[in-house]
Amino acid sequence: MYSKTFYIETLGCQMNKSDSEKISGILENLGYEEKFSPEDSSLLIMNTCSIRAMSENKAYSYLGVWKKLKQKNPAVKIAMCGCVAQQTKQKVFAKAPQVDLVFGTQNINELPLLLEKLENQERVCSVLQKPVHMQDSSVPSRKEGVSAWLPIIEGCDYFCTYCVVPYTRGRQRSRMPGDIIKEARQIASEGFKEIILLGQTVDSYGNDIDNPGINLANLLKELNNIDEIARIRFVTSHPADITDELIYNVKELGKVCEYFHIPMQSGSTEVLKRMRRPYTREEYLELIKKIRKEMPGVGLTSDFIAGFPGETEEQFEQTLSMLDEVTFDHCNTAAYSPRKQTPAAVWKDQLPYDEKKRRLNILNKKVRETVQKSQEKYIGKTLEVLVEGFKEDDGKITLTGRTRANKIAHFPGDKDLVGTLVNVHIKQTSIWSLIGEINLS
Ligand code: SF4
Q1: Same domain, 247 and 329
Q2: 160 C-alpha to center of ligand 1: Å?
C-alpha cells in the first residue's frame, strides 16, 4: 500500500458525485494517488447520502467492512463526508468509532487543513452549519469520459416536508455566470463533449441573485456558444421554476438537449399539498402540455414517492393514472422513508412498511409498462446519438450512447466513434433502451 493513496465511495445523487470529483482534485493536489480498491489505499472516504434510510444504512455497512481493513492496518484513516456527515456531525464517532474524520458538505475546501490536523489529533470533525457560497478554488478531478457534471446551484429553498436537502445542503446559492462559463471552457479543453448542469433545483438558478438577467435560460445561451461542446443538459428541474423563456431556449439552442427531468412526486393534489409542493396535478399536466407543444420529441422523466404519510389508496391510484396520462420516458421511484429533521417524519399517519412496499411494487410495474410504451414511438426513427462508450464481445463491438431525449441506444460501430455524434436508425427496443444501427446517409 502506498503511503498517500485514497479511495472514495460515493453514494447518492450527481451532486455527491460532483463533490467527490472536487475531493479527488484537492487530494491529487496534495500528492495523493487515487486507487480503485479500498484495500490499496491509506485514506478511505465515504461520501454519504441521507435521502433515504437505505442509503444511510449502506454507508454504515461499508464502514463496517473498512473497520476490518483498519484493524489489519491501523495507519489507515477513514473519513466520512456528504449529507449524513452534515446531519450527524460528532455523533458519527459514537456510531462508527473507526471513523477518524467527519466533514460536512460545506467543508470540502478545508480538507488539506483537516488532514493536517488529523496528523496530531485522534479525531477531527468539521461541519459548517451556515451554508457558504459555492467555492471555485478547488479544481475537480474529472474522470475521463464524454460527459462532465458542472454544478451551478447548491441547496434548496423549497423545504418539501419529506426532504433533508435544505438541512444538509442549506439554502439555495447560485454560482456567478462568469465562474460557470470559465469552468465550462476548462471542461471543453479537457476533451469532454457534453456538459450536464447540476442543481437540486437547477431551474431556480439565479433566483437568489439580485439580477433578473441571471437565470438558467440566459446561462444556456452563453454555454451554447462554446465551440468544442456538442451537447448541454441540466438536472433536476422544479416544476414551479420552468419558465416560458427556458422552454423556448431549450427548443431553440442547438446544443441544448430537448430533455427535462421534472419530479412530480405524487399524482394527487392533496398529497402534493402535504408534501409542500407548490403546484397541483392540473398545473403539472399543463406544464407538460406546454413543453410538448413546443417540442413534440422531448424526453420527459420524473420522480414519484409511494406511501407518503396519510396517502389513501385512491390518492396512490392518482399517481398511477398520472403515469398513464403523461407516458413518461422514465421515472425514479421510492417508498417514502422518514428522514430526521423533516416535518413528515413525525406525522402520526405513517403507512406500514409492507403497505409502502406493496405500493412501490405496483408503481414500479406501472413505470415499466409506461417506459415500454414510450419506447415504441422511436421505432423507425433516426435519432442523433452522442456515443459514450462501447462493449466488446467475441470481437463484436456494440456502441452505447444517448439520444437528445436522453434515451440509451445500443448499436454496432467502430470504437473510434466514442465522443462523436452519430445518427442511429432505431429498429427495435428493449425494456430500458433502444437498439439500432448507424445511418450513414
Ligand atoms: S425541491 Fe427537491 S431538493 Fe428541494 S426540498 Fe423539495 S425535494 Fe428537496
Answers
A1: yes
A2: 6
